[in-house]
Amino acid sequence: MDTQTAPGRFGRYGGRYVPETLVPALLELEQAYAEARKDPAFDEQVAQVLREFVGRETPLTPARRLTEKWGGAEVWLKREDLAHTGAHKINNTIGQVLLARRMGKKRVIAETGAGQHGVATATACALFGLTCEVYMGALDVERQALNVFRMKALGATVRPVESGSRTLKDAMNEAMRVWVSQVEDTYYVIGSAAGPHPYPTIVRDFQSVIGREIRTQSLVAFGKLPDAIIACIGGGSNAIGALHPFLGDASVRLVGVEAGGHGLDSGQHGASLTLGTEGVLHGSRSLVLQDEHGQIIEAHSISAGLDYPGVGPELAHMAKTGRMEVRTATDDEALAAFYMVSRTEGILPALESSHAFARAGELARELGKGKYLVINCSGRGDKDVATIAARGMPPAIQEKA
Amino acid sequence: MSGEIAEAFARAKARGEGALVAYAMAGDPDLARSVDVFAACVEGGADILEIGVAFSDPIADGPVIQAASERALKAGSTLKRVLDEVVPAVRARCPQTPLVVMTYVNVVMALGEERYAKLARERGVSGTILPDLPPEESAGLREAFDKEGLELIPLCAPTTSPARAERIVKDARGFVYCVSVAGVTGMRSELPANLSERLEMVRRSSPVPVVAGFGISNAEQARVVGAHADGVVVGSAIVRAAQADGPAAARQVCAEIKRGLKR
Ligand SMILES: Cc1ncc(COP(=O)(O)O)c(C=O)c1O
């Protein structure tokens, strides 16, 4: 099932709000992607790389101790943390870089916040021998030294962006500006299900491998579809990937968790579905955090991957129509969930994923015994350990240790 | 005020000159002093003023205008305040000069498309340029603008195919803004070799005047480009001069460009 109501439109959201210079490139991309999708050989090539290089399929792991602890639905984890480079981002970059190669582009640019998408793009470019340049807010370059090193080690050039808030949204602005200047030979790999049409569709399709695997794996593991699936939402790529294949299954509750930051009334959060208003950011019409004058407000989250003032247009549509339930988790709740999952399941979840875990306990209890809940563990927490350690372990956690 | 833009082009042409569309950022360094910059541009010979309204995420702008946006936002510039405070003040000082607002679609959406069209006309704005609104997305807005007689000025780019350009200019209002380089706003030492051809091509199908912008910063460039267009847009050079040395410097830039536009 598709929520797309017109090319590139999901209800009121989506579209292609970009400088005229880019429109022909987006039309070319749309066409190239449509042709690639009709070509079974392209599909097989993507699947093969995902299998041989990324390590798909990723497991669906029973979380027995979480199930016991929460005392409700049986809890299973979709383990995107076990995909190569440590997060779901690689599913999309493999697909898009193969598409770039098919289009004859030799040079790739990308934006990144925490660096996960940058690392995933650099990885795909290294694998296929394309030149890679990653735009990253100067503040994030400071904060995410480990991922900056990984990108450089993979042969990518990291370009710090000094404008605006020097974070992800500015990196995306800059990547678009650079793309405008070099559109003839450059492919822009967007990292989330956002941006101008056709990106939200392309990213969704490549990430939907997550949900398709959840479908077949849950039938094998517990003999039916899950009763609910929960995922964190930054721009929304892991969420749309996990949830989209279930849009037509009315029995499956779809739940997204946004960054509550310091709290919804603090003004410092990343909850664009919950508190955003309709606007245009980075080429699509969606829900965005903005002031009454249409100026974009900087998002805040403890996890750099959720620190984005917009959200993919299809998720905005799913939220507005009620197909997806939207919840939020604060920084503190995500941190507590990080420790809790580490200790009960032996998995260090990414801080982004920890937001999903933070709301999953309630959901498991709401569902009740005999039901099945899948949590999308979008990435591993190794990249976050420095951030988390710097805060010091909360006393309550230390006592239990 | 309808037809004001057409009249300005006609006046320049009658004088044997290409028209100068001068861009500056409203609210840079603050709302009041930006009015002085606009007035200085007209003193320097600008035929049409392009009033930039800052947006926090300007994807079509280079470093000079990005920085100006940040300064303007810090100084409290908003679309509403520009319409209420800057536009009437500029009009009072330069009653003959048509005013065109340039901003991003989100800023107009936030005020409301119909409300913007109405307010803009009431305050004396003739046209609007939205660099992130391609024709595919502009239907609703055009309707609101047409109702008020506010002209939506379309853009063409170096990457636009001739067939697409024809569609874009077919129902253009005000003028057609031909982006000279594939890139963002900013000064360039060189302009593309095929620019004159592209301008002539667009001009042949356009019912309204055609101007070239992005990258033009001196009299020689204005002369070369102006030979194949009805005028030029100059932005970053003015913004930079005004920031460094105030309104008089902006007047000088305009005067110099204007010299290049004499035929
Ligand atoms: C592990 C992980 N999860 C989630 C996200 C959020 O992005 P999205 O909402 O596109 O999945 C990121 C982004 O960097 C991430 O690294």
From TrEMBL, chain B:
Pathway info: Amino-acid biosynthesis; L-tryptophan biosynthesis; L-tryptophan from chorismate: step 5/5
Stored InterPro entries: Aldolase_TIM, RibuloseP-bd_barrel, Trp_synthase_alpha_AS, Trp_synthase_suA
Broad class of enzyme this protein falls into: lyase
Entry's Gene Ontology molecular function annotations: tryptophan synthase activity
Residue stretches in coiled coil: none
GO (cellular component) term, any one: cytosol
Active site location: E50 (proton acceptor), D61 (proton acceptor)
EC number(s) on file: 4.2.1.20
Catalytic activity: (1S,2R)-1-C-(indol-3-yl)glycerol 3-phosphate + L-serine = D-glyceraldehyde 3-phosphate + L-tryptophan + H2O
Endpoints of the signal sequence: none
Domain of life, per lineage: Bacteria
Record keywords: Amino-acid biosynthesis, Aromatic amino acid biosynthesis, Lyase, Tryptophan biosynthesis
Subunit text: Tetramer of two alpha and two beta chains.
NCBIfam families: trpA
Function noted in UniProt: The alpha subunit is responsible for the aldol cleavage of indoleglycerol phosphate to indole and glyceraldehyde 3-phosphate.
Family: Belongs to the TrpA family.
Protein name: Tryptophan synthase alpha chain
Species in which this protein is naturally found: Archangium gephyra
Lineage: Bacteria, Pseudomonadati, Myxococcota, Myxococcia, Myxococcales
